[in-house]
């Protein structure tokens, strides 16, 4: 394929490109991490093999770059990113703290859990924030994301491809989920992460003070947590009440409006992420 027309796995006509132009999806990423931590083996694999405690912002950046590459990268870029991730996962193992059994991090069950929680979180967060999608578009997004599942080594046929299949998957896996010590510590870490060494200078460049910036993050984390399914909030010891769903929905809609207003006043190079700009250029489109 001519690289000038190579739009990768999806392209401008996909629901994936429509959805991932929304900046509010960063909140979906945080929501997915809360969910992923409820799987005892998934969270143990992260805790025992990751530097997320010592370098949380670096890990977040690397994860975001991988997701962005899968969504907007050329065919060659996606293939390279997939090979790199599969190679890393293939050499990692962890020990189940409940049984003492050693397991592979690239176990398909764990990869599928991470994939489903991420995709469902992006979709749910966007819709709760007010992004309009039809039922057909929702199912199309799930089906399209099977291509992303294949990138990390999953058989696409084993991954939920509709909203109904995703609901069935969650219902089937809930008995395997629980709040472990790793889950609780990870949940707390996600809610109150350490401040990076250069946080103060970053805040000053943005015209913020340290205190308000940290309080703002706590509000973001609380909203992400509130967007979890009621059964997941109950596992964390939180409330599964409908009022929590209502307040989280109002909060995420407000965030989307505020982000949109802030970005509208900025030049397009700041409003559209570089990977998307490059993909649009290859597709012969403008931002």
Distance between the termini: 23 Å
The number of helical segments is: 15
Relative strand content: under 5%
**Which structural class best describes the helix and strand composition?**
mainly alpha
Low-confidence runs: 199-211
- What is the arithmetic mean of pLDDT? 89
The helix fraction, in percent, is 55-70%
- Tell me the overall shape: globular
Record field, number of beta strands: 2
Radius of gyration: 19 Å
Describe the protein's architecture and organization.
The protein is mainly α and 287 residues long. 65% of the residues lie in helices and 2% in strands. The protein has a two-stranded antiparallel ribbon with strand order 1-2. A hairpin with a 6-residue loop joins strand 1 and strand 2 (102-104). Helix 2 crosses helix 11 (210-226), helix 4 packs across helix 5 and helix 11 packs across helix 13 (242-264).
Offer a quick outline of the entry.
By secondary structure, this protein is mostly helical. The protein is built from 15 helices and two strands. The protein has helices at residues 15-20, 25-36, 40-49, 56-72, 75-90, 108-128, 135-151, 163-173, 181-191, 199-205, 210-226, 230-235, 242-264, 268-271, 274-282; strands at 93-95, 102-104.
Quickly list its features.
mainly alpha; two-stranded antiparallel ribbon
Write the layout of secondary structure elements.
Blueprint: H1 15-20, H2 25-36, H3 40-49, H4 56-72, H5 75-90, E1 93-95, E2 102-104, H6 108-128, H7 135-151, H8 163-173, H9 181-191, H10 199-205, H11 210-226, H12 230-235, H13 242-264, H14 268-271, H15 274-282
Antiparallel strand pairs: 1-2
């Amino acid at each position: 394929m001519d690289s000038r027309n190579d739009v990768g796995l999806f392209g401008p006509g996909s629901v994936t490109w429509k959805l991932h132009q929304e900046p509010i999806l960063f909140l979906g990423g945080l929501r997915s991490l809360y969910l992923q931590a409820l799987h005892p083996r998934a969270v143990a694999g992260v805790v025992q093999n990751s530097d997320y405690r010592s370098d949380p912002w670096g890990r977040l950046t690397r994860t975001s770059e991988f997701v962005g590459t899968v969504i907007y990268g050329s065919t060659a870029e996606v293939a390279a990113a997939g090979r790199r991730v599969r190679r890393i996962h293939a050499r990692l193992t962890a020990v189940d703290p409940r049984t003492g059994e050693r397991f592979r991090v690239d176990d398909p069950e764990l990869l599928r859990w991470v994939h489903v929680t991420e995709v469902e979180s992006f979709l749910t967060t966007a819709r709760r924030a007010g992004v309009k999608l039809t039922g057909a578009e929702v199912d199309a997004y799930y089906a399209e994301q099977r291509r992303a599942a294949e990138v990390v080594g999953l058989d696409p046929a084993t991954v939920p491809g509709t909203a109904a299949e995703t609901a069935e998957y969650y219902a089937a896996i809930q008995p395997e989920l629980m709040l472990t010590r790793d889950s609780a510590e990870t949940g707390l870490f996600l809610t109150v992460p350490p401040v990076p060494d250069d946080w103060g200078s970053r805040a000053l460049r943005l015209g913020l003070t340290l205190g308000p910036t940290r309080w703002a993050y706590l509000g973001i984390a609380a909203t992400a947590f509130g967007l979890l399914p009621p059964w997941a909030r109950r596992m964390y010891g939180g409330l599964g009440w409908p009022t929590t769903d209502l307040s989280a929905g109002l909060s995420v809609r407000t965030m989307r409006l505020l982000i949109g207003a802030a970005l509208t006043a900025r030049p397009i190079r700041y409003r559209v992420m570089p990977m998307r700009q490059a993909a649009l250029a290859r597709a012969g489109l403008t931002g």
